[in-house]
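Notes, Module 5: Reading structure tokens.

Key idea: the token line is not a picture. It is a compressed description, and you learn to read it the same way you learned to read a sequence, by spotting repeated patterns. We will look at two proteins. The first is printed below with its tokens.
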Amino acid sequence: MGVFRDAMEQALALRGMAPKTCSAYLSWVRRLVRFCRVVPDQLTTEHVRAFLLHLTQERKLSFSTFNQALNAARFFFVEVLKRPFVVEGFRYQKPPRRLPVVMNDDEVSRLLAAAASLRDRALLETGYATGMRVSEVTRLLITDLDSGRMAIRVDQGKGRKDRYVMLSQSLLETLRAYWRESKPKGFLFPGLGGTKPLCVSAAQKAFDRARLQAGIQKPVSFHTLRHSFATHLIENGTSVRTIQALLGHRSLQTTERYMHLAQNYLHQTTSPLDRLRKETPA
């Protein structure tokens, strides 16, 4: 793409796009150009339409991936080529609303007990005790922990927003034991060499090792710790607004889905069938 790649990189930088978004958009435009076999400035919306049909009908991409490809094409046309972007018949696809899988108290306890090392246990406990995303956990600095205020600073989380989460006494004890053993410097969970954070895939592997050792059969991942954190807080009576702030959600609606996962409202609600049987004489 040459000069067009440079122009798109500059446009993405000016818009303040996250690095992952920049990489994804550039990749989609490269695939669009390769599929259409034209130079970038000769692309038309009909080319885009054919490419999107290919993604939908042959590649059968997920809703979110399709929307990302559409966004990338729109960005390239509007911000780089300076052309209007109208593709008739194509709109952003709305994914089905699915509730995430969560672990119960027993499964979380078994998972933590099955951690292969003290570092792995500290990593997993941090995810569950704070509800942080795995990328936020791995990027933590030692200086982000404030034991005086019992808080952890999340620096530039998703959406480039700072926030604070609670530092529980139990987690603090584990982290202190981990620090005495490993003596990390800079990053709380450093990767190989100690100068960069632990990669997300290494954190997920630590989770998978513990999951297999604990015999947990559910389709869970490190991110499930975040879902479990929010669900268990709701079951303990924490307000949705508080959980929204802890998770760093922009929309309250995103947080409210955890109310459907909490079991207390299920157990506290009487089925109409039970009521009917109580009222019907034997």
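Here is the second protein, with the sequence above and the tokens below, as before.
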Amino acid sequence: MKNIVTMGWLAEKLGEPDLVIVDCRFILGQSEAGRIAYEVDHIPIAVYAHLEQDLSGPVREHGGRHPLPDMGPFSQWLGQLGIDKNTTVVAYDDQGGAMASRFWWMLHFLGHERVHILETGFSQWKAAGYPVSTEILQPIAKHFTPSVRTGMLISVHDVRKKLGQPGVVLLDSREEPRYLGLQEPIDPVAGHIPGAINSFWKESLNGNGLWKDTEEQKARFAHLDKEDEIIVYCGSGVTACPNVMALQEAGFQNVKLYLGSWSDWVSYEENPVATGEE
């Protein structure tokens, strides 16, 4: 798998130049829990990325709960982490890869290909006996030059236009009860975008919490046509990212992220809402 690296691979690379490891641990509703966990211990040389302070911008009336930050300052921040075009980046979290996938997606959005996700979370890394550290290093700053790929995104206005169009598939990455509209613990309206099908993002993982391999991802999305445009969304543009990566691993090329996702969709009263099975 081109986007996933094993624990053994990363352990062998520790200390090599042009490697940056990014700890993305974060718990929704406990915004500092990830940073606190990082300060207790982390993979050696790792730097920390906070979902809401580093990987998201200010929340407004529209745009969802985790909009993108301004890409200018964000690119400068990546440089401060020691990332440039020659850097290999490995991201991890302890939330099934959801937060690490957001970071992975953002680097791809800025044109950086050399970014990977650790096959599992920090807890399993530590339990397996791999090294951890309490030292918080100050990276040597580099210059990161972004090359924005706007084609990886789709706006709410374009999603509206594409509803019901042949050759377009909406993929809802949330848990099935939220998709069905049976419960909605976070956003003000329950349900899904009309026409969307459900594919819970955690189905990207196997029973041991490791990312499924390429063949398993292909089997998971065998009901989809690779010629179609796949629009992926979730609640706020975070847990859709594991599905975007899994689709890429399965060989899908025409995949777009609806970044604002459900939290953006329901911020427009005129947007239609569906419940139940499609």
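Summary for the second protein:
- The chain has two domains: 4-149, 153-265.
- The radius of gyration is 18 Å.
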